[in-house]
Amino acid sequence: MRDFxxxxxxxxxxxxxxxxxxxxxxxxxxxxxxxxxxxxxxDSFASTPQIIELKENEIREFMDLLxxxxxxxxxxxxxxxxxxxxxxxxxxxxxxxxxxxVVSIYKDGNVIRISDQGPGITxxxxxxxxxxxxxxxxxxxxxxxxxxxxxxxxxxxxLSGGSMNIDDNLSSGTVITLSxxxxxxxxVSPKKGRVKSxxxxxxxxxxxxxxFLITELSKAGPSKVASELNISLxxxxxxxxFLEGIGFIKSxxxxxxxxxxxxxxxxxxxxxxxxx
Length: 276
What we know:
Structural class: alpha+beta
Number of domains: 2
CATH class of the largest domain: Alpha Beta
Shape: globular
GO molecular function, one term: transferase activity, transferring phosphorus-containing groups
Organism: marine sediment metagenome
Largest sheet: 6 strands, mixed
Protein name: Histidine kinase domain-containing protein
Helix content: 25-40%
Order of helices and strands: HEEHHEEHHEEHHHEEH
Radius of gyration: 20 Å
Pfam family, one: HATPase_c
CATH architecture of the largest domain: 2-Layer Sandwich
């Protein structure tokens, strides 16, 4: 499962999508029907959301666009949701034929709720296990269709310290909630705050190697870190998530990490302890 997850994360980095989608016709039960997907952007759980609508045209390009826009809007608000998680959940909407899909993105971008009014998921425990699938032949033109999507999403978000919950929608369909912890990076005085200064944080030998590598390369993603340090992709990803969580590195839209001011401060302090 881990090896398969590595391959998926490698393949699934966000790419620039087309704003205008060319309409094509397919002999399929899930061919375009002009349905709309709504993205709701919230400033708080109690606020009135900003609504953005996307129209369904060609299925493959539509799924890519919805994934990219969800990733973009969540990260614009400060979220850290991995692209592979969003992509797998969006592709799973094909089982609902994109019926009444709503993507809700909440404050800080680290809570995303994706709902539909399709047939729903009867056995939620089996749905997150590899190999259980209801994908029909026409769906397999657009997705793998082997029951790997939800398990990959669940494992990926848990590697980031988050969670994925699956619930029934009100009358029919499914609601999937993706949540990541929100970290605070703001420096505060020792008397008033709990956030440690960069000098007070201790890194493991492997975490230090990852940080040094990113400093040397300027930017690096999980696959590059795994290759250079001869570690598994899941381990590289976990260490990057940790370093990002304490504010030493930051990620761009392509998933590559670079050093932050806080990370540079840590390195300067680290090297200052060595006498020449």
